[in-house]
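DM from R.C. (forwarded with permission)

"hey, sorry to bug you on a friday — could you get me a structure for this? deadline for the figure draft is monday and I only need the backbone to look sensible"
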Amino acid sequence: MSASPLARVTTDELLLAEHLAAVDDPHAGAVVTFVGQIRDHDPEAAGRVVSLDYTAHPEAERVLEGLVATHARDGVRVAVSHRIGHLEVGDIALIACVASAHRGDAYDVSRSLVEAVKAEVPIWKQQHEADGNASWVGLP
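My reply, with the result:
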């Protein structure tokens, strides 16, 4: 079975059910999901984090599509989306779903995919703190 076509950078709310449907496969015995949400703290922040503004390079979705193609293989289906724009604490910023016949493959591919998204997709965040301070995180 081929890889799912879901690889998206969007301002729209991310829905786990949509990602699960994209990797649905009767041959899959395991589906691993990763949901990354905005938290209220960061080791580099001086105070409490209240929101993030994500900005993406115009080629970010193409890079994400390449990562899906790299991680999907025979018997492994992959769906991943990253949200951009203004997100509040608790909002979902990233969803990755991987379906495979066996849990080991699903776990391995999921972790590799999420780490690759964080390292390779040109998306940056400006972190806003409760005291009004803002700083960019993850700039090259």
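R.C.: lifesaver. The chain has a mean pLDDT of 94.
me: no worries. The two ends are 37 Å apart (CA to CA).
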